[in-house]
Amino acid sequence: MMLKKQTAYPLYAQIADQLRLNIQTEKWAEGQRIPTEMELCEHYHVSRITIRKAIGDLVRENLLYRKRAIGTFVKEMAPNKDEYATIIKGFTQELQEQGKNATTVFAEVEHSHADPKVAKFLNIKVGEEIFILKRVRGDGKDVFVYFKTYLSYKKEYSLKSKDYYGSFYDYLRTLGIVANQEREYIEAIPATRELQKLLKVKETDPILKRVRFTSQKSKNFFEYTECYYVGSKYRYYLDFGI
């Protein structure tokens, strides 16, 4: 991915985003040593200071750790990873916990083929059949999120848009699929023309982009979803145990 040098978004932050994606998509495995600072300098054509700032961000996020005189490594997650289950909360459940009802104002299903990016995320080959689900959702009063979900194609998936106006994860459960692993990252982006039209926002309105990866490896199920929230109408909560 090329860096955008004519932008207010710092180079080190752009590089950190790309390194973070390598971890989240498991291009870099847990415990793996990442390329050296000099190798990354040569790859991105930037200074060593820029690379150090990018890596420093991921160290603070607990995604990477350094070993003196050895290198920088991907942080290992919980032991017995394949048996570790994370509770996956969908949009419907998130709103229910806030005392609100989730609604869908638009749903569209598409049968397509995987490009290199999507193929990597879904653990399939380029050109294989995929299922794309696009939905615009809200709480009955406001419309504030657009979901674009990619799945490897299965004949069990309905191609009727009307079947996706409720909870997507509830629908998957009817097929015996329960996603039990999840990784996400969040970033702020400007509203594209597509988002302006779908979410009825202005170009200057802030958009919160939330990218989600889920899987159930025993079912060979992988999901990649891009979520776009209207920043002024949505808050993302994280709970931490102390």
UniProtKB/TrEMBL annotation:
SUPFAM superfamilies: Chorismate lyase-like, Winged helix' DNA-binding domain. InterPro entries: Bact_HTH_transcr_reg, Chorismate_lyase_/UTRA_dom_sf, Tscrpt_reg_HTH_GntR, UTRA, WH-like_DNA-bd_sf, WH_DNA-bd_sf. The keyword Transcription applies. One of its GO terms (molecular function) is DNA-binding transcription factor activity. The keyword Hydrolase does not apply. It comes from the Bacteria. One of its GO terms (biological process) is negative regulation of DNA-templated transcription. Residues 9-77 form the HTH gntR-type domain. Pfam families: GntR, UTRA. This is GntR family transcriptional regulator.
